[in-house]
Amino acid sequence: MLRYLTAGESHGKSLVVIVEGLPAGLRIEQSEITGELGRRRLGYGRGPRMRFEQDEIEMLAGVRHGRTLGSPVAIEIANTEWPKWVEEMSPAPGRPAKILTAPRPGHADLAGMQKYGFGDARDVLERASARETAARVVAGCLAKALLAEIGVAVLSHITAIGSAVSTSSVRPGVDDLDRVDASEVRCIDVAAAERMVAAIKAAAKVGDSLGGVAEVIAYGVPVGLGSHVHWDRKIDGMLAQALMSIQAVKGVEIGDGFTIAHQLGSEAHDAIFYDEHDDRYIRETTRAGGVEGGITTGGPVIAHVAMKPLATLNRPTLHTVDVVTKEDTVSFKERTDVTAVPAMGVVAETMMSLVLANEALRKFGGDSIAEFTRNHRAFVETCNATPSAVTP
Predict the structure, then answer these.
(1) For the whole model, what pTM was predicted?
(2) 12, 54, 80, 267: which has the fewest Cβ within 10 Å?
């Protein structure tokens, strides 16, 4: 089983991620990890931190000469801003110079302060910050490397930012990722991308923020990941949970879920065909998002992920209450982005990859990459065979 744990605060010394369960012999290169972290910083509308945060990483354990050892992999992501925050974020006994007492609506501030008994919102926001997703992206890079061994690739693109929505039916393929990332908003619909940029500029002008939607697609996913047997083994349930766990995400749709809820059954499902040339069952549409009954069908796995506008505004106008004086006020301003939707798409790739990699390991097993890939090949060769007997 693939498990991971992240630790660290937004302005702390570093973030750390530990990934356990990777088979021995998986090729890991530091340049690939830093490349994925660089993708997370992409997107028009990001704040100044993205320009100087370099995400310097150090592999601490579990990798030798570019290959995993089968033991837990530990990787540290240094915070290049740490010198500015040593006193404010020091683990030593003391008191912060500035206490934040005006919690932001839409953020974890007030609920976290009430839950843990804090009097300073920074005790909550530092961990609740989306900076934590940098550690997840590192874990996701390892998951992507594992999935690549069995021919699975995961990518995302942006379909909406604010009211600017792409109406194109074109979906990027595996070879289109560079083209997606070359867009300022990671949208391959050029006309829609221009509208998204204009919407971001308009929101920035008045100090506001924007949310949006990313489509995440996994190609080459084998049939049979997940299960119909137990509620917590359904692949779509696991995907929804993982994607919903991303900071500021408020909605997840598998395939055309919300659209087909308003259609007739005769219009809503993916017809099944048999391809004699490739000796496999196929579906020519993707309404179910590559999942039926909690099990992958062998087609692309597709999810749509909706991110709300960020709770921190460059022109604080959100009404709140000072937790000390109980007086009306406006929420404090923490450095923020106008939108982080393009980056959220990259994080969504991470979360989908971690779920699929975990389920691939559950199904195919193996202590080494050679064993893992051998088991996968054996399953692919037999999964479409005609059953030899039917249980009465």
Answers:
(1) 0.94
(2) 267
